[in-house]
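Hi L.,

You mentioned the student needs an example of a multi-chain input paired with its predicted structure. This one should do, with 630 residues in total across all chains.
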Amino acid sequence: MSTQPVTVTRKQKEPIDFVKVEESRQFKNFMHAKKKFIVPMTIFFLVFYFTLPILTSYTTFLNTSFFGDISWVWVFALSQFIMTWVLSTIYVKRANRFDEMAEEIVKDQLDEGGNR
Amino acid sequence: MNLTYFLFFICIVVCTLIITYWAAKRSVTTNIFYTADGSLTGFQNGLAIAGDFISAASFLGIVGTIAFNGYDGFLYSIGFLVSYLVVLFLIAEPVHRLGKYSLGDVICSRFPGSSMRLMLAIGAFTISILYMIPQLVASGFLLRLLLNIDYSISVLVIGSLMTIYVMFGGMIATSWVQIVKTIVLMSGTFLLSLIVLSNYNWNIPAIITDVQAHSPLGEYFFHPGHLFDHTIELISLQLALILGTAGLPHILIRLFTVKNTFEVRRSLLSATWIIGTFYLMTLILGLGTIALIGYETLVATDSTGNLAAPLLAQAVGGDFLLAFISAVAFTTIVAVVAGLVISATTAFSHDIYHMVWKKGKSTEKEQLYAARWTALAIGLLSTIFALRLETMNVTFLVSMTFIVAASSIFPVLLFTIYWKKFNRTGVIAGMLSGLIVSLVLLVLGPHVMHPEHGLIGREAIIPLYNPGIIAIPLGFLGAFLGALASGNQSENEGDYPAFFRKAQSATRSRSDAS
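Structure written out for the whole complex:
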């Protein structure tokens, strides 16, 4: 969490061809990287979350003991907390990198008027 | 009311009013009034989000539900927490980049126009009011139980405080009241959890044994299925909880109170840690209540279970701790309702008055004037409503709010941000289908239609207490079909490439970008 995004305050001199920016390899790579991270993660946490109520509704094996009186269902329930904390921490780390990539695009493409 | 209670309450009222006074002197522009000028740090905003989100129903209600139903009560906590992943991964950054003050701004940055803004404003306003009324009613009962003061006096006190905070102090006062609330609430629950654990010498198995001995559920206390016997009901609730937060306007407008996306992420990261820790502590309190006080005493005192935490406080710490926990509950209530007042106020005065009615041409001074009067009107009207609803059970409106949010605002936001072919018709169809379907399901469901205690004394047509599993897919379907039905009018679609770029990558602070 050390990389604060640089704020761009530069004045724009000439109109920028945004369609070109949009179609540039740099921007496409950026969106691809973002999607490749967010989509699987989102699917993962949704599946992980709904697995718990589905398992407790249709099966009873989570009621078996994990340790003493504590059953597996509680382990799974508490792991939802751990999952939330871990994923949100990972997201924040990765998103800071995405911000850097976006900054680079802004710098490179806007300086060139979108001609790169 | 004895002196200890009185001092705690006066202390909280005076502290929050000092905050409001300090904030009022600073709230001189609309930007400051609606978003505190984006001046909060990520961590402060995280505290404020937690303060906005954790209602008295979560604090007192969940402790009681866990004490009564064991595992099933804890399901609410899981849903509330995991829902922040949906906000963080899919919604938060685009909303921050695109909006200025309200959700109407977010949608209108892709689909400019009065009808779009009006639709979103009505949605946001309705959801905030639907959520505020039951909170006010519950607070009236709660203070009556805790302090032995009259229902109407309790509602009047809380109603006036929330109105004063927002009317004079705007978002700065609301934020800081929420920050103070989170600190007080976390300290209170932490202290109470420590006392419970030390009562058992930190021996968790001993707590479990005692819980099983004192709950009528016995050894099955820790098994699922005591609150939700229907699979559909259970999945439906979980669906509404995980998707609802991402459509709650009073939470989403808190994303405008920081200066950039870096701080947005820090806000939500802090919020998940605080909220998660809080719900783990309510688990300890729920188990502690049943272990130390027992089921019979709890039911005899209050059959809803809302008094579990206060009873526990009294049992382990006497009147002083009870007074402290009551004060915590009071702070919890005022912070949440203030957040709802400012959310409804923004929807009305910024979107409807300034942008739609005055076509965005009213001056700063007029806008501020309108915002303050709107806050006053909303505060007054909600208080009057809450006073008249004393005899009605309206707690189901809380879970309804999550369903309405998840089936109207959430699908519309998601499609607007990510779907290239989405269009104006889709926005209107999505909002309307979500709102109408939720309300129809509510009326046809067992909250309203019930042979014994329903408004309509007959068997419910749709026997679901949590109709999210029908309403949410229909909301999505409405938005989807609406967008397809209107065909490919390019004007209708808005400028998606420019919008998309801004939603995904604008790292400049919002004030520069807008």
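You could point out the following to them. Chain A touches chain B through 54 residues (CB under 8 Å). Residues 1-13 of chain A have pLDDT under 50 and may be disordered.

Best wishes,
N.
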